[in-house]
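Researcher: Please translate sequence to structure tokens.
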Amino acid sequence: MPKVKPDGKEVNWPNDEGVLGVVGVAPWATIEFCKAFYSKINAKKDWHYPRVLLDINCKLPSRGRHFQLGERDPSPYIAKTIEELHEQGATVAVVPCNTAHVLYDRWALDSPIPVLHIVRETLQVAREAGASTITPLTSSSLAEHDLFGALA
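Model: Translation complete:
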């Protein structure tokens, strides 16, 4: 649980409510993710929304440059960020970057908290909605690895 707790009067923290840790490797994708996440929550007051810990760090090694130019693997940096978010109180994490998910096994499998796989989650939602085909808009690195096709 986060170290800063509400006062326990009109603002409280339900025991079953976790804290989402977001590893932001691309600022605009992270902001769009947060907008979409919060838009799904039916809240009457600000304190009805869940707590989200954001670490938007555009200085992490580039996923695309790693794949296209052989530069540093961003995986250890993403894994360390997830650990730091966990230390701050996150109970689950997400990395809103499709391309980073090509390396998911390198940064998520040994995580101290569950890490959502956004490509798998997207495919699951599409299946549940009855979609038989999806056409994702992807980076060249993601298209080259055909992550959506491999997981479909």
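Researcher: Any highlights?
Model: The two ends are 35 Å apart (CA to CA).
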